[in-house]
Specification:
This protein is of the alpha+beta class. Helix content is about 35%, strand content about 15%. It contains 13 helices and 15 strands. It has helices at about 40-45, 55-65, 110-125, 160-165, 170-190, 290-305, 310-315, 315-325, 330, 335-345, 350-375, 385-405, 420-425, and strands at about 35, 70-80, 80-90, 95-100, 130-135, 150-155, 160, 195-200, 210, 215-220, 235-240, 250, 260, 270, 380. Strands 2-3-4-6-5 form a five-stranded antiparallel β-sheet. A three-stranded antiparallel β-sheet has the order 7-12-13. Strands 8-10-9 form a three-stranded antiparallel β-sheet. The longest helix is centred in the last third of the chain and has 24 residues, at about 350-375. About 25% of the residues are buried. This is Altered inheritance of mitochondria protein 9, mitochondrial. Belongs to the AIM9 family. Keywords: Mitochondrion, Transit peptide. Its main location: mitochondrion.
């Protein structure tokens, strides 16, 4: 976590060099500005504050872009784990710079693994991934004038699939799903001797690696999950974790043709069952009772990525303790304990049942609040909706608190009985 909070921000100093016109930079490049959080807002925004030299980043973009002399436009975009700057240069080319937030993963490892993963896939598959122009996973290295980890890439060609999807005909959508999974098939067909994340063999400075060849190795997992397993469903499998329309680029005139797949951060080699229930957003039906896209996904997955089919048919209760254990950092151990109990088929766990009822009530309440207020599951709200949503949130909480206090003692089985418990949720 970063220690610098948004309240410590300094106005961004205007660059006096002719790298870009002053009028183009009308945003603060360091602070998070894409939304607010209903819970722990200050901490959430502080975790996404990046201290770095924006001028140095602009200069780096120009230095690695032959034929470009100035930046004519710059757009700031933000996701859950990265800040992205899309630069348009005076030679009409576009370049993307991605800087990870402190919560994106382990320092140095996350960026190094993402770059190695992309290079590995570019050398062994035909999956269209934008070329990496420059990168650094060491924010304090003397050669890194930017002062932050970064990856600078070519901009993906084409347009985002989610922009074209609403206007695509049914046969185009089915063809597009088939094309996507023909590309993913190349990914799934890669074989690995161990779990973990990919790295360059010569550039890592940590132990415990498993060599793949002279150029690549498998090293520490970039997330908090790692286990060994011998069942068939645990075959080490490299898969694309974010198969959403916004990360897939297609041809403007032929949206069934894939031109680019982006955002490979945190891609890792996992047991096959970890990916077996991943459902892309393009399988959602657009008409009641009509889900030909889910069927196309099912068929494409079954025939092109059969390694995922086996785990889908197995008892999910056997996998849940493995697949959700990493969430104990965030949600405590009660859910993991429940999964273990369910797996053991034991009934004599009275104290646990009380805790689990409270946990379950909290999850339902958060889900219902998220739907009522139209927020993300973690309480994220777009800036233009912040005031209205915050006001509605306070009003709903007051009503819920009144209901809890009014019904105190009437239902002893209710997990939420007082204001303190309600606030903890």
């Amino acid at each position: 976590m970063v220690s610098t909070s948004p309240s410590d921000e300094r106005p961004f100093p205007r660059n006096r060099d002719p790298i870009y016109p002053d009028k183009l930079i009308c945003f603060d490049p360091h602070s998070y500005s894409s939304g607010r959080w209903l819970r722990q807002d200050k901490s959430e925004r502080a975790a996404r504050y990046i201290k770095f030299d924006f001028n140095a980043l602009c200069q780096k973009v120009l230095d690695i872009s032959p034929g470009a002399e100035t930046i004519t436009n710059c757009k700031k975009l933000e996701g859950g784990f990265n800040r992205v700057f899309v630069f348009t240069l005076n030679n009409a080319k576009r370049v993307v710079a991605r800087l990870p937030f402190a919560l994106a993963g382990p320092a140095k490892l996350t960026t190094a693994s993402e770059v190695a993963t992309i290079k590995y896939l570019q050398s062994r598959t035909s999956i269209p991934i934008p070329a990496i122009l420059d990168w650094s996973n060491n924010a304090i290295n003397a050669n890194n004038t930017i002062g932050s980890e970064y990856i600078i890439m070519e901009h993906a060609t084409g347009v985002q699939l989610h922009q074209k999807w609403p206007e695509m005909a049914g046969d185009q959508r089915v063809k597009c799903i088939d094309t996507i999974y023909r590309k993913i098939k190349e990914l799934v067909n890669l074989q690995f001797p161990a779990f973990g994340s990919l790295y360059f063999a010569k550039l890592h400075d940590f132990g415990g690696t498993y060599p793949l060849d002279k150029e690549f190795c498998i090293g520490p997992h970039c997330g908090t999950r790692y286990w060994d397993c011998s069942v068939e469903a645990a075959i080490p499998l490299l898969f694309y974790p974010d198969l959403y329309k916004r990360n897939i680029f297609v041809l403007e005139g032929d949206p069934a043709t894939i031109t680019g797949i982006i955002d490979w951060q945190a891609t890792s080699i996992e047991p096959a069952f970890w990916y077996s229930d991943k459902i892309p957003d393009f399988t959602t039906p657009t008409e009641t009772g009509k889900n030909i896209y889910a069927k196309a996904f099912e068929i494409s997955s079954q025939f092109l990525t059969p390694i995922l089919s086996g785990p889908r048919l197995m008892d999910e209760s056997l996998f849940r303790p493995f697949r959700y254990s990493y969430r104990t950092w965030k949600d405590r151990a009660v859910a993991l304990r429940h999964d273990i109990i369910e797996t053991a088929r034991s009934k004599d766990f009275t104290d646990h049942e009380k805790e689990y009822k409270l946990f379950e009530a909290a999850q339902i309440l958060r889900h219902d609040l998220s739907n009522l207020l139209n927020t993300a599951s973690d309480g994220w709200v777009p800036p233009e909706e912040w005031k209205a949503t915050e006001s509605a949130h306070k009003e709903i909480f007051t009503g819920m608190l009144q209901a809890v206090l009014t019904n105190q003692g009437l239902d002893k089985d209710k997990p939420v009985k007082d204001e303190e418990t309600l606030r903890l949720i």
